[in-house]
Design a protein that fits this description.
Number of strands: 4
Structural class: mainly alpha
Number of helices: 9
Oligomer: single chain
Largest sheet: 2 strands, antiparallel
Strand content: under 5%
C-alpha cells in the first residue's frame, strides 16, 4: 500500500507542469542561486554590455533563450549522446541557437547587433549555458531542464539590467536612452534650472567597464550580508 502511494505521488510530481519544484527552478536563480552573484559565472559579459540598458536587456533575453532551449534540446537527446562526445554535441547545439539569435538580431536591430556582435557570439562559451547543460539537462527531463535554463538566464539577466540601469543613469543621466537628468534642456530635468538637482554630475567612471565590477561586488556583499548562508558558497 505504501509503495503504491509513493508511486502515485512520484507520478503526480512528474506530471506537474508548474508545481513547487518547477517554480523553484525559476525563482532560485533570481536570489539564492543566482549565476552571477552566487555562482560567479558570466561576469565578463556583465562588465562589457551593461553601459546602457538596451544592449544589456537584449543580451539578457538572448542568453535566457539560448540557455532555455539548449537545455531542452540536450535533455531530449541525453540518452542518445555518447559520453565521450557530449561536450561537442552541447557546443553544436549552443552554436546553432546563438547563430539563430544573432541573425534575428542582425535583421531587426542592426545597430544593437553591431554593438553586441562579439558578445553575442561569446554566448557559445558562456559558463552559465555550458554549466546548466552539464549540471542539469544531462540528468533531468525536458520540461524541468527548460525551466532551469529559463530561470538561470533570467537570474543572469536580472543582474545585467540592475547594473545597466545604475550605470546609464549615473553615467549619462538617462535610462533606455530617455534623457532624465542633465545640464541642458534636452533632459527632462535640467540641473542648471533646479537648485535641488545641482548635486548631479555625470560620473565618468560609470561608463567604464571597471564600474561594473564594483557594482557586482556591492551586490554580492549586500546579498551575503542579508543571507549569511551564502558566504563562501562560490
Amino acid at each position: 500500500m505504501a509503495e503504491t502511494m509513493t508511486k502515485e505521488v512520484k507520478e503526480k510530481e512528474e506530471l506537474e507542469w508548474f508545481g513547487p519544484k518547477e517554480r523553484k527552478l525559476i525563482t532560485d536563480p533570481l536570489n539564492d542561486d543566482n549565476p552571477v552573484t552566487v555562482q560567479i559565472l558570466g561576469v565578463c559579459s556583465a562588465l562589457a554590455v551593461t553601459t546602457m540598458v538596451k544592449p544589456a536587456l537584449i543580451m539578457a533575453v538572448s542568453v535566457t533563450l539560448v540557455t532555455g532551449f539548449s537545455n531542452l534540446v540536450i535533455s531530449l537527446m541525453r540518452n542518445g549522446i555518447p559520453k565521450q562526445i557530449r561536450m561537442i554535441v552541447q557546443l553544436v547545439v549552443i552554436a546553432f541557437l546563438v547563430t539563430v539569435v544573432e541573425q534575428v538580431l542582425k535583421a531587426y536591430s542592426y545597430p544593437v547587433w553591431k554593438q553586441l556582435s562579439v558578445f553575442i557570439g561569446l554566448i557559445i562559451t558562456n559558463c552559465i549555458v555550458m554549466g546548466r547543460l552539464e549540471a542539469y539537462a544531462m540528468a533531468n527531463p525536458p520540461w524541468r531542464s527548460f525551466l532551469d535554463g529559463i530561470g538561470n538566464g533570467a537570474g543572469y539577466g536580472f543582474i545585467l539590467i540592475v547594473i545597466s540601469v545604475i550605470r546609464e543613469f549615473f553615467g549619462r543621466g538617462a535610462i533606455l536612452g530617455f534623457k532624465i537628468l542633465g545640464a541642458t534642456d534636452e533632459f527632462l530635468l535640467n540641473t542648471t534650472k533646479h537648485w535641488w538637482l545641482s548635486w548631479y554630475q555625470p560620473n565618468g567612471l560609470m561608463v567604464l567597464p571597471a564600474s561594473a565590477i564594483f557594482l557586482v561586488g556591492i551586490i554580492i556583499w549586500i546579498q551575503r550580508a542579508r543571507n549569511p548562508k551564502l558566504v563562501d558558497v562560490s
